[in-house]
Amino acid sequence: MTPGARVAAAADLLDDILGGAPAEKALTGWARGHRFAGSKDRAAIRDLVYDALRRRRSLAALGGAETGRGLMIGLARESGHDAALLFDGVGYGPAPLSEAEAEAGRAPLDGPEALDCPDWLWPDLQDSLGADAAAALAALRERAPVHLRVNTRRTTVDEAQAQLAAAGTDTRRHPLSATALEVVTGARRLRADPAVLSGALEFQDAASQAVSDLVPLPEGGRLLDYCAGGGGKTLAIGARVKGHFVAHDAAPRRMADLPARAARAGLAVHCAAPDALAAEAPFDTVLVDAPCSGSGSWRRDPQGKWTLDPARLDELTALQDEILVAACGHVAQGGSLCYVTCSLLARENEERIAAFLSAMPGWTCRAQHRFTPADGGDGFFFALLGRDVDTTQG
Ligand SMILES: C[S@@+](CC[C@H](N)C(=O)[O-])C[C@H]1O[C@@H](n2cnc3c(N)ncnc32)[C@H](O)[C@@H]1O
């Protein structure tokens, strides 16, 4: 496909996505219907679509319209190209610019428009992040880097780097975690890399690794991952500390791959049904990696930035409160409850901890930490809550 044909395909896809189609589904459907497109074409079209979604507001301003075509015109102008040269109507490329299109468009206004932030969220993000808000939003306009976690039960970081380099993937250490590598070149071959297939390396964001590093677990201790999903954080904790690991999720199918992934990584993780949890309790540590807006990872899921609304945020905060109260019942006296979100919003973070502490006597907040995308990984929030020992019993 020519560069123009890729732009035309991306513009059509963006129209579907702006109309409500999930981005991943639209891209998969497009690939099925255009078998002639090679993997390089598919990857290039995907990049165009995701770049446009990350910068939807600013590109719509530059391109003069919030349509697939408008965003593609905006993207061409943003990268300093003369849009008229790309929109030339040749072959399967996009039709030439109309006079109106050639004249439309302006520089995005400073503030939420230039930062590609929905207006309603801008005050919340400023309250939540203070002076860091603009840098965090600017980072969310960029593609996410590819990060790996070195499973130090299987190999060392130096060895992993050397083997990757010999196979054509250059990496550098990431400052957020001692086990994290950032891929510099050669990311595309990684899915078939023997170290990835054998569990010696895992794809995991560096800040997600940093959060896992903060979860305390005594050697040989018992950990419950209450919202385990794919279990990425349990695997990271298990690579650091030997213990007994139990995973739970309200949607158990999300944990389907976890036992096999854990076995590859040299760990045993038991997936417990919701009604079997009480029999497994108490735990030294319960990790609540709560469902959230995902605002810290909007680089990876930029559609989420535009579909979140105040009603959904209210639903999420109510669910976060509910989960914290349910999960804390499984913590042993003197044990720890770790609350994690990949959200940048205080409403889902500090405010949930404050609500929990005011509703549940006998708990103390021992630490809180926030990571923003400006730190080089996804945005995360971590709080460590300690269950006081009840000295009135026994
Ligand atoms: C942020 S994701 C977890 C990601 C995972 N820990 C990881 O590191 O890959 C949140 C998970 O919470 C689960 N969940 C939602 N509501 C829940 C509830 N009431 N109780 C337990 N899990 C819940 C979702 O199914 C989802 O898998």
Automatic annotation (TrEMBL):
What's the superkingdom here?
A: Bacteria
One BP annotation, GO: RNA methylation
Give the matching InterPro entries: MeTrfase_RsmB-F_NOP2_cat (IPR049560), MeTrfase_RsmB-F_NOP2_dom (IPR001678), RCMT (IPR023267), RsmB-like_ferredoxin (IPR054728), SAM-dependent_MTases_sf (IPR029063)
Domain named SAM-dependent MTase RsmB/NOP-type is located at: 136-394
* Residues binding S-adenosyl-L-methionine: D249, D289
Mention any Pfam family matching this sequence. Methyltr_RsmB-F
Q: Where is the active site?
A: C342 (nucleophile)
What are this entry's molecular-function GO terms? RNA binding; RNA methyltransferase activity
Per UniProt, the keywords (alphabetical) are:
Methyltransferase, RNA-binding, S-adenosyl-L-methionine, Transferase
The answer, when asked if S-adenosyl-L-methionine is one of the entry's keywords, is yes
The similarity annotation says: Belongs to the class I-like SAM-binding methyltransferase superfamily. RsmB/NOP family.
**Name listed for the protein in its UniProt record:** SAM-dependent methyltransferase
